[in-house]
Design goal:
Elements: H1 45-84, H2 98-109, E1 120-129, E2 145-154, E3 160-169, E4 175-185, E5 203-205, H3 209-222, H4 227-234, E6 241-242, E7 254-264, E8 271-283, E9 298-306, E10 314-319, E11 334-335
Antiparallel strand pairs: 1-2, 2-3, 3-4, 5-7, 6-11, 7-8, 8-9, 9-10
Helix pairs in contact: 3-4
């Protein structure tokens, strides 16, 4: 066969193209004869190592900063709460000029002729520091402190009146009454309020005969001067409690005016309990004191009666008029055994008779 011309082109079928690695001068493919080749998508160990070190640093920082953050947060909360708490009001003490103001009013009431015959001083109420205007045009301006004191007096007829007196106080602390006291009326008693019910929102009811008997038992013990008898009447089982009765009374009598049932709950859900509050008026027949007209002084009480809806009620607490709903069983007890209770001292009322 004749040789092909030198410039004739060689023809290959598709897929028979010689590889570039076999071309003259090309670099050999090192992976061509490898038994296994690395797979694509394998994790980068160096990147994983860097991420691990980074997470370790974050964890160490968190372990150190988290307790510190908790402490700082707690301090911030405590500081906020302390700022929000309202400090208790400071106890107001009477001024140093109070005794002088009271003495001035006492002396004024006892002047002859008396400005308010038969009146007596009841109490000191308050005072006000009057404004001070300093005259700077003079070399020695007036710097005297001026106080207006208000006191309450009772007239012979029982009317309450207010008296005001002025006290001057020097920079050195000297005191003096300036002028005479003033006199002004108070609002007095509102007759429309005298019939106000003792208790608000309670259903009134008449005490049963059993409740009346329990009240008589309490009155006898309360006026006996015997702490043990009073504790037994109250039924307090605590031997460390002592009750203090009145002494010097003979034959005190009680009159119950009205009672009311205590309830639990509010509004329509209120449920009546077996406890009752009772308003009591008790005579005070002091030993050795005789009134020509046969009249006896009286005192009023509110009593708390438990088991008032049973045949065995008992008076377990007492207080002033209107306090019944606030009373609690055995609330009048004082700590200490009966042997440690103060001796019953006869409470003798002042002699009402006059000579001549």
């Amino acid at each position: 066969m004749a040789p092909a011309p030198a410039n004739s082109a060689r023809h290959y079928r598709k897929g028979d193209m010689p590889s570039k690695s076999k071309r003259k001068g090309s670099a050999p493919d090192v992976w061509q004869d490898a038994a296994e080749l690395p797979r694509a998508g394998l994790p980068d160990e160096r990147a994983r190592s860097r991420a691990h070190r980074r997470m370790t640093r974050y964890a160490m920082v968190s372990m150190v900063s988290l307790p510190l953050l908790i402490v700082l947060t707690a301090l911030a909360v405590m500081s906020t709460l302390s700022r929000q708490e309202t400090p208790p009001p400071a106890a107001e003490s009477a001024p140093a000029t109070q005794p002088l103001a009271m003495a001035a009013v006492e002396n004024w009431l006892h002047e002859d002729p008396a400005p308010l015959p038969g009146a007596s001083l009841l109490t000191w109420e308050d005072y006000e520091v009057l404004p001070l205007v300093v005259d700077t045009s003079t070399s020695q301006p007036d710097r005297t402190r001026r106080e207006a004191h208000t006191l309450l007096v009772r007239s012979h007829a029982g009317t309450l009146l207010r008296v005001q007196v002025m006290i001057a106080v020097s920079e050195e602390g000297g005191q003096a009454v300036v002028g005479a006291p003033s006199l002004s009326a108070t609002a007095g008693t509102d007759q429309d309020l005298t019939g106000t019910a003792l208790w608000s929102g309670l259903q009134t009811d008449s005490p049963s005969p059993d409740v009346a008997k329990a009240i008589d038992t309490w009155v006898a013990a309360y006026t006996s001067g015997d702490p043990l008898a009073l504790r037994q009447a109250v039924g307090d089982p605590d031997a460390n409690h002592t009750y203090l009765p009145l002494s010097g009374l003979t034959g005190a009598k009680a009159t119950t005016s009205v009672g009311a049932w205590l309830t639990e709950g509010d509004g329509d859900s209120a449920v009546r309990t077996g406890d009752m509050v009772v308003s009591l008026t008790m005579t005070l027949p002091w030993t050795g004191v005789v009134d020509d007209a046969g009249r006896l002084p009286q005192a009023s009480f509110d009593l708390l009666v438990t088991d008032a809806d049973t045949a065995a009620p008992r008076v377990v607490a007492w207080g002033g008029p209107g306090t019944g709903p606030t009373l609690s069983a055995y609330g009048n007890a004082v700590l200490g055994s009966v042997a440690e209770a103060p001796a019953a001292v006869a409470t003798t009322a002042p002699d009402l008779t006059t000579e001549g």
